[in-house]
């Protein structure tokens, strides 16, 4: 499928591994007590806080692409300079914006589910269960 697109075969694998790592980071972050700083305040507080935390984690994971440059140059400073010189900034910012939108939507749905409860969310998505006619 990727023949002729200019996308390396390793790129989808890297994206999948990155997504799995980010997913695991989100699950681990959800277990930390500092993540639910404002459970009794309006939802926007928790949504903004969690989105910020998850974006920082995602940005750090994105920065770890530095490892490939580190292998090539042999030093952290050289790797950093090479990465900054070769980075395609519009591509980087496009990925960051897409991550921000996806993370924000995830956090909004997670917080709504937390407040509304499992039963209410099931009812919202699948409707009310039919009552037995008796």
Describe this structure in words.
There is one protein chain. By secondary structure, this protein is mainly alpha-helical. The protein has one domain (18-118). The protein is built from six helices and no strands. The chain has helices spanning 10-31, 43-63, 66-73, 76-86, 89-116, 118-126. Helix 1 (10-31) crosses helix 2 (43-63), helix 2 runs antiparallel to helix 5 (89-116) and helix 3 crosses helix 4. It is elongated and about 70 Å long.
What is this structure, in a nutshell?
By secondary structure, the chain is mainly alpha-helical.
Q: Uncertain segments of ≥5 residues (pLDDT<50)?
A: none
Mean pLDDT: 80
* Total number of strands: 0
The overall number of domains is: 1
Largest sheet: none
C-alpha Rg (nearest Å): 20 Å
Residue fraction in strands: under 5%
Helix count equals 6
Helix-residue proportion = over 70%
Structural class: mainly alpha
Span of the ends, CA to CA: 56 Å
Order of helices and strands: HHHHHH
Oligomer: single chain
Shape estimate: elongated
Helix and strand topology:
Layout: H1 10-31, H2 43-63, H3 66-73, H4 76-86, H5 89-116, H6 118-126
Helix pairs in contact: 1-2, 2-5, 3-4, 5-6
Short key terms for the protein model shown above:
6 helices
């Amino acid at each position: 499928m990727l023949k002729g697109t200019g996308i390396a075969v390793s790129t989808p694998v890297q994206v999948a591994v990155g997504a799995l790592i980010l997913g695991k980071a989100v699950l681990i972050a959800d277990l930390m007590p500092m993540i639910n700083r404002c459970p009794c305040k309006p939802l926007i507080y928790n949504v903004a806080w969690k989105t910020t935390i998850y974006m920082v984690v995602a940005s750090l994971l994105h920065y770890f692409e530095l490892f490939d440059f580190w292998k090539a140059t042999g030093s952290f400073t050289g790797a950093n300079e090479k990465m900054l010189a070769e980075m395609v900034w519009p591509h980087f910012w496009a990925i960051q914006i897409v991550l921000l939108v996806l993370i924000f939507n995830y956090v909004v749905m997670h917080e709504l589910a937390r407040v509304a409860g499992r039963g209410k969310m099931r009812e919202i998505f699948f409707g009310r269960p039919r009552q037995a006619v008796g």
